[in-house]
User: What shape does this take?
Amino acid sequence: SQQGEEDPQALSIQEGENATMNCSYKTSINNLQWYRQNSGRGLVHLILIRSNEREKHSGRLRVTLDTSKKSSSLLITASRAADTASYFCATALGSNDYKLSFGAGTTVTVRA
Amino acid sequence: KAGVTQTPRYLIKTRGQQVTLSCSPISGHRSVSWYQQTPGQGLQFLFEYFSETQRNKGNFPGRFSGRQFSNSRSEMNVSTLELGDSALYLCASVIDRVGAGELFFGEGSRLTVL
Assistant: This one.
């Protein structure tokens, strides 16, 4: 069963706009990670945020984590056509736990 | 540095057959995990190997098995294939040091069962 639930399922935006997607999970976690997947390809790690962190940035990505609400959000600023992909959140229960529980993903389409 | 390599990339099998998929992790990475991705169930954890030992296992039937060799390369096997086994099988490796959590995924092996 999947621990993470993502919202929205799909998102269509204009190039240059920001894209925000949310992830909720059910149990206490050690860390939450976001991955990107281009159609039919492997997953690419974007960012990892630990349970004692509230916000993290990486380039045009901003991730927040609210452990009290068991939720996280991923913001992509100034989107580009190359950002078109599916985005997945994944939770890990332990610090070196590689049994990740993935959400269903958000499909983002960036229109030129 | 070469990435995670999975072979074959595509394969077609018929029900009842068996299949073996291979994964070569990034050099120096000792942990290898396998995931199944289907449109209906999404991404699901199959198992994780570290130093030739299965360290963690997901909720899959015994038809799904794996192993890891001394050079960290891993294989997974699915016996008595069913239509529902059609999926993208993803392998991921990680360096496995304290505080590391990032998984590096291969491009996957797409299995079609007819």
Q: What stands out?
A: Chain A is about 0% helix and 55% strand. The mean pLDDT of chain A is 93.
